[in-house]
Amino acid sequence: MNISTIEKELNSLAYHGRGIIIGKSTDGKKAITAYFIMGRSENSRNRVFVAEGDAMRTKAFDESKMTDPHLIIYYPVRVLGNKTIVTNGDQTDTIYDLMDKQMTFEQALRTREFEDDAPNFTPRISGIIHHEKGEMNFAMSILKSAEGDDSSCERFTYAYNNPINGRAKFIHTYHCDGNPLPSFEGEPKTLELPDTDIDSLTDLIWKNLNQDNKVSLFVRYIDLESGETETRIVNKNK
User: Fold this and answer.
1) Contact at 8 Å (CB) between 112 and 136?
2) Domain 3-235 is found in CATH 3.60.20.20
3) For the chain, what are the domain ranges?
4) How far apart are CA 25 and CA 225, in angstroms?
5) Helix, strand, or coil here: 43?
6) Nearest to residue 163, comparing CAs of 192, 137, 184, 141?
7) Residues 60, 13, 212, 237: is their CA dihedral positive or negative?
8) Bridge partners of 221?
9) Do 43 and 185 contact (CB within 8 A), yes or no?
């Protein structure tokens, strides 16, 4: 298995699109998640992350410049009991609402497909963390068009029980640059998680995202015993 570093993976592409990282701290005591957005258009770059209780939403930085909120404004993070949901679109709400009605993560996502932003058909990437009595498990999902054909949706779910300390999984929307942008390929990547505090990890991720394209970053540590959280948000727009 190829195990990479955060620095190497983030520097491997100038434009990942959106990305989700989920893993467990080196001491096994915390669940760690990060979500970042990048943008190339003025509309996509005109955003900030805003905390809203234990949730987080996107917001237009300059409302007068927002040309189309579709696919831009949503809740990337919501919490349902001891489950933290992290996604790149309004499927966050779908997962939250349907899991609250006793459906599973995978069942909820079967009601959704990739984004309707032809010709890219941006994948919907999603993650969920479940923690209880000092333990955690998590899952990741990607819904993407089949070879760029919007008549066919490919669905992949990856579940991780008792994840290894000091490791994380990383999934992002685009495989590489292109026109149209090709969707992410393969399993989520395995990353080393450094033995560090939330501020240092936030700084590490932010510094290694492409300077021109990065927009916002969310990082959360969840104490697996107490359920208490620490959250950091960084916005390029200030």
Assistant:
1) no
2) yes
3) 3-235
4) 13
5) helix
6) 137
7) positive
8) 32, 230
9) no
Which of 225, 232, 235, 238 is CA-nearest to residue 25? Answer: 225
Question: First and final CA of the chain: distance in angstroms?
Answer: 40
Q: Which two tokens stand for residue 64?
A: 């007068």
Please identify every stretch of the chain with a pLDDT value under 50, giving residue numbers as ranges. Answer: none
Between CA 38 and CA 85 the distance in angstroms is 20
How is the chain split among helix, strand and coil, in percent rounded to 5? 15, 45, 40
Token pair, residue 49, equals 């992350």
Compute the residue count for the chain: 238
Q: Quick one: DSSP state of residue 201?
A: H
- Parallel/antiparallel/unpaired status of strands 189-192 and 3-4: parallel
Q: Which residue has the tokens 């990082």?
A: 219
pLDDT digit string (tens) for 27-55? 999 999 999 999 999 999 999 999 999 99
pLDDT of 48? 98
Q: How many CB atoms lie within 10 A of CB 27?
A: 9
Peptide bond into 180 cis (omega under 30): yes
Q: Give the start-end residues of each E strand in the chain.
A: 3-4, 18-24, 30-38, 47-52, 55-60, 77-80, 83-87, 124-132, 135-146, 149-161, 167-172, 189-192, 214-223, 229-235
Residue 198, φ and ψ in degrees, nearest 5:
-65, -35
- Nearest one of 77, 10, 73, 20 to 44, comparing CA atoms: 73
